Amino acid sequence: MHLEAGFAASYRTISINTALCKGCGICAALCPGALRMTGSGKAAVSDQSLCTGCRNCENHCPDYAIFIKVA
């Protein structure tokens, strides 16, 4: 299911399983607004409200560590 760009951000939640994240940085490169890399080398949510729901982070994560949940 692809989310529409106009879909309200309050209905989306970015979930990152840091135990699976290897810190490749692909997600942060694809989404520099909503995601960032931490000092420990793991992906983290920087601003949930900037998530457009494109799912590029989820679809390109080689470790399957990121999920976009829709409520």
What attributes characterize this protein structure?
Alpha-Beta Plaits; 14% helix; two-stranded antiparallel ribbon; two-stranded antiparallel sheet; alpha+beta
In short:
With 71 residues, the protein is an alpha+beta fold.
What's the SSE blueprint?
Elements: E1 12-16, H1 26-30, E2 35-37, E3 43-45, H2 56-60, E4 66-70
Antiparallel strand pairs: 1-4, 2-3
Structure description:
The chain is of the alpha+beta class and 71 residues long. The relative contact order is 0.35. The model has no long low-confidence stretch (mean pLDDT 87). The chain is globular and about 30 Å long. It has a two-stranded antiparallel ribbon with strand order 1-4. It has a single domain (9-70), classed as Alpha-Beta Plaits. Helix content is 14%, strand content 23%. Strand 2 and strand 3 form a beta hairpin.
Helix vs. strand class: alpha+beta
Briefly note the CATH topology name: Alpha-Beta Plaits
Question: Taking Cα atoms only, what radius of gyration do you get, to the nearest Å?
Answer: 11 Å
Beta-strand percentage range: 15-25%
| Spatial strand sequence of the major β-sheet | 1-4
CATH architecture term: 2-Layer Sandwich
Shape: globular
Helix fraction bin: 10-25%
Structural domain tally = 1
What oligomeric state do these chains adopt? single chain
How many helices in DSSP terms?
Answer: 2
**SSE run:** EHEEHE
Q: Report the strand count.
A: 4
